[in-house]
Automatic annotation (TrEMBL):
Residues 190-237 form the 3-hydroxyacyl-CoA dehydrogenase C-terminal domain. The lineage of its organism: Eukaryota, Fungi, Dikarya, Ascomycota, Pezizomycotina. GO terms for molecular function: L-gulonate 3-dehydrogenase activity; NAD+ binding. Residues 306-325 are annotated as: Disordered. This is 3-hydroxyacyl-CoA dehydrogenase. The keyword Oxidoreductase applies. It holds the Pfam family 3HCDH. It comes from the Eukaryota.
Length: 325
């Protein structure tokens, strides 16, 4: 692969997305906002209603001025056809090791030798997925945070065998289209964003299950405290500021006893535990069917506000109202 193919604006860039689920179509929307020609994107999925499904869902992820591009994307149910001449293969298929192991062995055999191979898994490391590959240096995790057509994070997680060149090209690609790739120094279960999210969810479930708050009350607590704060700064920077001139060290010196008591009192909850009926029922009653367009617009507005706060001037917006995220 030449350096010219690293940016989505390159005329010879060809991206194959395997899997047309929630993440797959969100990634499709992201790539469409940067590719010069929608025909440079291929979506592969075996669902029988692929054409109708993509036509109905993909435009909702795109700004109004680009929605017509959804009809120009190539669609196929064949892995061989999807990857035959691609420069990037990005997989967002089922979270099953057997599926991914076989898929990457097939892709390695069918795709050009220089194609970048990315898995969007939320937890299965590349060192397990590459077991049946001859060249294990090619595969790495590129884990987006949902929805990736808006949220800028990509966790880049190479296996011990992934080559430095593949990592560098991957990081360069995402930086060149304005995203935020974060390179993890080693594989770890759930990566970083997932571990933080699931730890918070565990404590949230515990508090609801213990009848301290309801689902709706807990969300309101987050929305009016840590949510806005963390969007701008993240936990370490936030707590550094919370400690005043002495920073995080001073903060923990002052409230460390309470912090330790909270850590010691952390409730244990297990997936499939007795809390599920209560929490699921409250969540369904409070929110019902999720409004993804409302979610997307709220995320855009938060990101725009953060950019403005950090730059001291209004963030960029295109003529159709899309802010580039």
């Amino acid at each position: 692969m030449t350096d010219s193919t690293l940016t989505s604006s390159a005329p010879d860039m060809r991206i194959a997305l395997i899997g047309a689920g929630t993440i797959g179509l969100s990634l499709a929307a992201l790539h469409l906002t940067h590719l010069p020609d929608a025909s440079q994107l291929t979506i592969m999925d075996v669902r029988p209603d692929l054409e109708a499904y993509v036509a109905a869902v993909l435009p909702t992820h795109l700004p109004p001025g680009l929605r017509k591009l959804a009809a120009e994307v190539k669609l196929t149910s064949s892995v061989a056809e999807a990857v035959a001449d691609c420069t990037i293969v990005q997989e967002s298929g089922p979270e099953r090791l057997d599926f991914k192991t076989q898929l990457w062995a097939d892709v390695e055999r069918l795709a050009p030798r220089g194609a970048l191979l990315w898995t969007s898994t939320s937890g299965i490391p590349a060192s397990q997925q590459n077991a049946a590959m001859e060249d294990k240096t090619r595969l790495l995790v590129v884990h987006p945070f949902n929805p990736p057509h808006i949220l800028p994070l990509l966790e880049i997680v190479p296996s011990p065998q992934t080559s430095r060149a593949v990592v560098t090209k991957t990081m360069d690609f995402w930086r060149q289209i304005g995203r935020e790739p974060v390179l993890l120094s080693r594989e770890i279960t759930g990566f970083v964003a997932g571990r933080l999210a699931w730890a918070l969810l565990r404590e949230a479930i515990h508090l609801v299950n213990e009848d301290v708050v309801t689902v709706e009350q807990l969300d309101r607590v987050m929305q009016t405290s840590m949510g806005p704060r963390w969007a701008y700064a993240g936990p370490f920077k936030s707590f550094q500021a919370g400690g005043g001139p002495g920073g995080l060290r001073a903060l923990l010196g002052n409230v460390g006893g309470t912090v330790q008591a909270c850590w010691d009192d952390g409730g244990r909850v297990d997936v499939g535990g007795s809390w599920e009926a209560k929490v699921f029922a409250q969540t369904d009653e409070a929110y019902g069917r999720p409004d993804l367009e409302e979610r997307d617009e709220a995320n855009r507005m938060v990101l725009r506000a953060v950019r403005e706060a950090k730059s001291g001037r209004p963030g960029p917006a295109s003529a159709d109202g899309h802010d580039g995220t």
